Automatic annotation (TrEMBL):
Source organism of this protein record: Euhalothece natronophila Z-M001
One Pfam family this sequence matches: DAO
All residue ranges annotated as the FAD dependent oxidoreductase domain in the record: 4-349
Keyword Oxidoreductase: yes
Protein name (record): FAD-binding oxidoreductase
GO cellular component, one term: cytoplasm
Superkingdom assignment: Bacteria
Amino acid sequence: MKRIMIVGGGIVGATIAYELSKNSEFQITIIDKDVPAQASTGAALGLLFGVISQKKQGRAWELREISLRRYSQLLVELQEQTGETIPHLQGLIHLCFSPEEMAKWQELASLREQQGWQLELWNQSQLQAACPTLNTSQMVGAVYSPQDLQVNPQALTTTLLKAAEQNGVTLSWETEATAVSVTENGDDKHSHTVHTNQGDWEVDHLIIAAGLGSFPLTQHLKKPLPLTPVLGQAMRVRLNNDNGLSSVVTGNDVHLIPLGKNEYWVGATVEFPEQPLVDPLDKVWEQACSYYPALAEAEILETWSGERPRPSQQAAPVIEYLEGYDNVILATGHYRNGVLLAPATATKVKELL
């Protein structure tokens, strides 16, 4: 039986643990220095921009397509096993503000049709009919992606871990990997023991899926993976009276996600520098209110932020063996797409194993 340790209890590590737990030949442990679903996962909005992504071919599109196909089964599969319903919304609406933008989406829609996916182009009247509470005066239309979705990343992560534990995975939280003992194995090194503040684990394979926390471990292994932290920010708001949105709406990199009970998440994918929340969130709020005026009367319930790991010297994400090691796998550096690409990452890790 292969002893596998996964370092990182976010959405990526949890998905890997769950998918690998179906193999009876694996004895799996997952650890995290905190409790699960924190850091990048705790700050994520769970937007799965797959079909609607401008990634058209190559690895970037392949990973998105793998994930979307898996998500169509995964949420149902997890509910059947655990009894937990994972909050999610099917379909994404992307607002368009110029004819040139609409032409770009028309080209993508034609390509996606050839690839077996669907995008709908709406004119302004169709958008207004679908979302009567939006201010469409500055818009020429929208693109609707019925096969993309939004999922609650924290609920998904905890449910994945619950299912993995039911399948025999050992979960160990507030457990920090502090060192790894290795031996020489020909031209490669071989990790055999992971040392933590909670004790030592002997391993046959080590999977590093710790987001920004991956860097110190790779540095200890003398093959540092440079990762740049990128700040993402969001807020949860509540309207007194709302007859509004039932689908996710995104425009100019600002996202509005209905949560039910008159509550919304409002967030952005733009890369803000590290600075106090109020300045960049004011810009996000102004943009969101411009296309959904009802927000101007909303109560802000909470704000939050999180740092997302972007690889500095290669494309995101990094899914490969750590250079010079025959049993250390990197599954990290997902930047803004950890939730979207978690299933595809698990698939690629299985192939590497």
